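Homework help board

Subject: predicted structure for assignment chain

Our instructor gave us this sequence and asked us to write out the predicted structure in token form, then describe one feature. I got the tokens but I'm not sure how to describe them. Can anyone check?
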Amino acid sequence: MSKIAKVFIIIFVIGMVLVLSVFTYVAIVISQAGETTSLNIAKLNSLNSQVKIYDQSGVEIVSTSATGNETIELEELPSYVPQAFISIEDKKFYLHHGLNYGRIIKAGIKNLFSGYAKEGASTITQQLIKNTHLTNEKTLTRKIQEAYLATQLEKKYSKDDILETYLNVIYFGNGAYGIESASQNYFGHSAKDLTLDESAILAGLIRSPRTYSPILNPETCINRRNLVLKNMLDDQIIDEDTYNNSITKPLKLELSQNENNLNKIILDEAIKILDLSERDVSTMGFRIYTYIDTDIQNEIAQNIAQFDNLEHGLIVIDNSENNVLAYIGQCDIYRQTGSTIKPLLCYAPAFEMGTLSPITPICDGKINFDGYSPHNASGKYLGWVSTRTAIAKSLNIPAVKTLEYNGLDKSIAIARKFGLTFNENDRHLAIALGATNEGESLINIANAYTVFARNGTYSSPNFIRKITTEAGTTVYENNPQFNKIIGTDTAYLINDVLKDTIKIGTAKRLCDLNFPLSAKTGTVGTDFDSTNTDAWCISYNPQFTVGAWYGNTSGDSTKNMESHMNGGTTASNANKVAWNVLTKHFNINKDFVIPENVKKYKIDTLSLEKQKVELATENTPDVYVVEDWFATRYAPKVTSTNFTEQPKTTLNMEVSDAILLSWEGQEYLEYSLYKKEGNTTKLIEKITGKDKKLTYSLPLPSQNTEYYLVTRYKNDLDSEGVTSNTQKYYINDTSTNSNTKSATQKIIKGWFF
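My token output:
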């Protein structure tokens, strides 16, 4: 026997051994599958996932992540709907018997050369089995079980039944199981009314609902949709004109406005924690224990029912460990934030960098930044105001100026630490007023304010306390991590300033709550009328943070809020409801603790009027002293010279047909003008200075008279004042000063000659 023949025989024997081994392994797996993973008709028709979610008391909130599932019959769908799925997922669906052997061989070769499982070969039947009977683990055993059960399924059901069941149970992302739920979820209508491009979008989602999500990744979604349409063109399901028309259509979503999408939010957090697919988290029997207090949540929801005609969201966060106690409505959609961004983007960075203090004067007046001219919502301007007032009254021009003072890069860098998002298009000063490209969600904005409540530390919001398996084994337990992102001094200054928003500013609706509270409102209006698209209010104390948003996401201007419905009214009212509920369950009485690196300093108000922050002296009258908080690292070091000594005034006198008295006035001084005739002294008038030369005209007296001023600081009633020099008018005495002497001589000559 030749060497070649021997080699051939050896290779043949080895090959047969391998084939027999594979067949033996497959037979064993199939045998096990027949015993432990047999075809279960109930699983095929089940639309409920196995996940269970509990509130903080252990009461079950929900036992399914597929909310509102409804089945739909295949014949009710437009023909292009199932064809889209077949074209992208399983072209030979109606030809094979559960397995596409040609596709399996092709995928196997590609995977062999790539070195990993790059290419899949699952048919629609296999996908249905995997999604209803098996896990997502990528093992040969599971694939064999899947193949075996797929062939069994094909023997029991018709192709149309399999396809119909598949479309009714497959996961489409965003909490939607089944095509009817997905159509309602993404497009706001029944699957019966799906258009061709909408069908292509849903068909494209199946491979990876998160990757091709029209919400999270719209561009990727469009590319995937167009790939589905190209497959349909190649399969001669649609013609070229239809294809060209469909690929140019913009992505148009009408997301379902569920009153409470809490389940989806909790599942999203579990997906990140467990690093599993959405389907696996939903179907592997996990038990998710949350921090949600359903009693508080339900009571708040019931009490804000009067606003049900508006889209809204409300969230309550326990600041101690950043746990979400209540989550109502749409807290996760991204919207323009209005003025709620100002403390986070403008003023916290300014306090952190020492650009401003709460008492620093800022001019609220018309201004132009290279073509950008912001204006206040009221259309009015207050002139020079303190930073504290600018924040409390939510003035726009000071916020934009502060952002410019800080510098865009520095402000954005600090704001990002609060969890806010900015992109390359946010390189303009209008972001100071909330005009960012992507906007923010209520949950992100509310969570950012918890940083102030916790003295400058950031943590992601936590919904989940722990996760266990169905058998009770704990696979995750929350251990919140906090990062210091701003100083305790900065946090306290913001907290103190935002108390004024309730006392004198835009959140006055909260002023009758009898406990310490800080707040910030925000309103987004339109350029074409007086209506509003978004209204925000965030309020907090050391214990809790409450955030509320109301608005119109439809793009239909007729659904906008009226002008009187804004952050200071509608959203603040919802905050008040939440706090009133919280007071029934908790003792709400804590105030922010003053840190050691924050102190009050006495400031000279006369210097403030000249836009200088200078320390008052011991001589400064109380009426010219104001106190405010400063971070000690940025405390004022310059002492005012306004009151270093008692005020002195020089009185001048000129005489002609009348006596003209004059002196240099100061606005902060009060002058008492006296005249003395013989032994009688009389107050002529009290005059307040105005930073200019003051004059006072008197008729010529009939006897010798002396004039003098007593000067004191305005409103300083305890001061005796300082007497100026005396100006004398003597009729017969020529020994007075030269101007009086010449005047007297002139008068005498006029009388006697």
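Reply (TA_rk): Your tokens look well-formed. For the description, you could write something like this. Confidence is low (pLDDT under 50) at residues 21-30, 63-68, 111-119, 734-753. That's the kind of observation they're looking for.
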